[in-house]
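To whoever is on call:

I kicked off a structure prediction for a single chain this morning and the downstream step that reads the tokens threw a length-mismatch warning. I double-checked the sequence; it's 96 residues and nothing unusual in it as far as I can see. Pasting both halves so you can look.
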Amino acid sequence: MPVYIMLGNLTHAAFDTIGTIDERDKKAATIIEGLGGKLISLYYTLGQYDFVLIFEMPNKEMLIKFLAIMGKYGTVRTETMETIPASMLYTAGKEI
């Protein structure tokens, strides 16, 4: 299953409900699992981004559904990247 890395920032609306952050995190995991994915890890960070979410999704259709669901709440702004396994680069280099 493809692995994605989501970098995100919390909006002002998210801070209005900061007391329920654990509930919001559990809800995100439930949504991911409901779409056939798996939450690998979630970290809150200091710096340019407020959090890093690493997760699997079975396909891009489910990824888009997840992003749409996240967007409708208006509590986060995100940037999502698809990962490339290192082993894929090892084998690609041998073909050149």
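Update from on-call: the warning came from a stale cache, not from the record. Cleared it. Sanity check on the structure: The first helix runs from residue 12 to 16.
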